[in-house]
Design brief:
Keywords: Hydrolase, Protease. The chain is an alpha+beta fold. The protein has 5 helices and 18 strands.
Length: 271
């Protein structure tokens, strides 16, 4: 959850730099990861296509995968992708347009004039590798969402915290579980669950109200005897984001021509 939180804030800040851009993504099969709350997307890389599951990170402008040969790759159960076995992979030189579009701190010129990228995330994880172009195919169902937590602009977040403090009758705890900012002390029942009544959350959009279940925004930590709200803040210049967890239990429709997003409650286990 800590890594998901840091990535969520990082993505929100990046959205602020590109809020006027709109991209239509392909439809794809997604699978929620129970440990991180992120979505895994099935993709087929190269020619012939090699199946892989990757995090659907719509907040980043770089798609990367671990390739062979590799000396310092993170351990994984699936074989490393071998670009030499793909007829469509092409490494990019340092003077190529995609390479020059990277920031000065995000690129360097490697051996034989090959472009190398350097990319760091909000949780201090990073990736370094060769920049290239490759064929990627997607599945035919579902949709990917890249931000786990709901992010609110700082001024609105402060009002949100004050309201919750009033509702819970106490200030947020000073040392919340890792990856959380906003947690409150709560009683734990005999079954080890958080006990008590919880506030009803309703998100107000232009032309619509979206009521949420407690599980959309609340996470119980019995060992800490706290309940945490899966909401974090960004700067007032950042963009508020309706996160993955808040969208659980909804079908979401995107009308690109009308510039409209619609939400409908749904039992996703039946789809």
């Amino acid at each position: 959850m800590r890594n998901a939180a840091l990535r969520s804030v990082t993505r929100s800040n990046r959205f602020a730099l590109s809020r006027n851009t709109t991209q239509e993504g392909p439809r794809t099969i997604t699978t929620p990861d129970a440990d991180t709350g992120e979505y895994l997307m099935r993709i087929y890389i190269g020619t012939p296509g090699v199946e892989r599951f990757a995090i659907a990170d719509t907040g980043s402008d770089l798609i990367w995968i671990q390739c062979s040969p590799c000396k310092k790759c993170t351990p994984q159960t699936t074989p490393l992708f071998d670009p030499k076995k793909s007829s469509t992979f092409k490494g990019l030189p340092c003077d190529s347009q995609p390479c020059t579009l990277l920031s000065n701190n995000g690129r360097r010129c490697g051996k034989s004039g090959k472009c190398e990228y350097l990319y760091q995330y909000g949780d201090n994880s990073y990736t370094i590798g060769n920049l290239g172009v490759e064929s990627i195919n997607f599945g035919s169902k579902g949709g990917g969402k890249g931000t786990t937590l709901t992010i609110l602009a700082q001024s609105f977040y402060n009002k949100f915290v004050n309201l919750l403090t009033e509702l819970f009758g106490a200030k947020p705890v000073k040392n919340p579980p890792e990856g959380n900012d906003l947690c409150f002390k709560i009683k734990i029942d005999e079954d080890g669950d958080c006990a008590g009544s919880f506030p009803e959350f309703v998100f107000h959009f232009t032309g619509a109200k979206v009521p949420l279940q407690p599980t959309n925004l609340l996470q119980c930590y019995p060992d800490y005897k706290v309940i945490c709200v899966m909401v974090q803040s960004t700067s007032d210049n950042g963009v508020s984001v309706f996160g993955n967890q808040a969208q659980v239990g909804f079908q979401v429709e995107y009308d690109l021509q009308q510039g409209m997003v619609s939400f409908a409650p749904a039992d996703c286990s039946k789809h």
